[in-house]
Amino acid sequence: MVKRKTVGEQSLIARSDSTRYDPLEVAEQEVKDLNKEFLICLEKHKKIFDEDEFCIVLQRNVTDPLIAGVRRNKFFGWLWLPQPRPFQTVFYYHKPTESCKRLWSLPDPNTMAILGSMPNLHTRNARIQAWVKAFYDGTFHEYIRMESQINMLTQAEYSDLHNEEIIKARGENVDGRITDSFDFSKVFSDKVIDPVEAGLN
User: Fold this and answer.
1) SS3 assignment, position 161
2) For residue 90, which phi and psi values (nearest 5 degrees)?
């Protein structure tokens, strides 16, 4: 079995590397890697989710808590429309037709702030700007549903719609804020069992 280098080892090698790389080659390789990881995540969640539709979320540029300078791309499946955030791309998958489409891609926070405050663009960034403006207007999910012609709910919307069913399925609704205080009058010395003695018996 071939021993793979850890992320920490790869990070040290990358930092000491002074080679100049072609940005287009780097971008092409990144796209290939992302495509491969996307397909792995999609296939895995097609078996996990017993629903006709779900989302595959790519959260880009996630910093590593232990290794400085390392950023990761994380894929995960989600049954509802996720909450939008910077560095995020979301894909919608429809199982009966086996069709997949991108719902949105949000850039870094600085770019979002610039696009959100600019007049409407008529360039290739116009669609991203529309997503960003809907994000700041508080109409993001409504805009995505209208643009993509889907009816998928957010997790909060789903919970509100099916609240009674969820409570019934969960059983008795227990209020976690109310607790019963301990009744010390029920404790008697002859009722307390030594754990060592109980184990021997």
Assistant:
1) helix
2) -125, 135
Q: Is 88 helix (H, G, I), strand (E, B) or coil?
A: strand
Write the CA distances from 201 to 148, 189, 192, 195, 196, integer angstroms. Answer: 68, 19, 15, 10, 9
CA distance 97 to 15: 45
Identify the three-state secondary structure at position 76: strand
Averaged in consecutive runs of 10 residues, what is the pLDDT profile of the chain (201 residues)? 68 64 60 85 95 94 65 89 95 95 93 90 88 96 96 91 75 58 58 54 52
Alpha-carbon distance of 9 to 94, in angstroms, equals: 40
What does DSSP say about strands 99-106 and 88-94: parallel, antiparallel, or unpaired? antiparallel
**Listed residue (86, 94, 11) closest to 52, CA to CA:** 94
Contact 142, 131 (CB under 8 A): no
What per-residue confidence (pLDDT) applies to 55?
Answer: 96
Beta partners for residue 72, in sequence order = 62
CA atoms within 13 A on the CB side of 87: 13
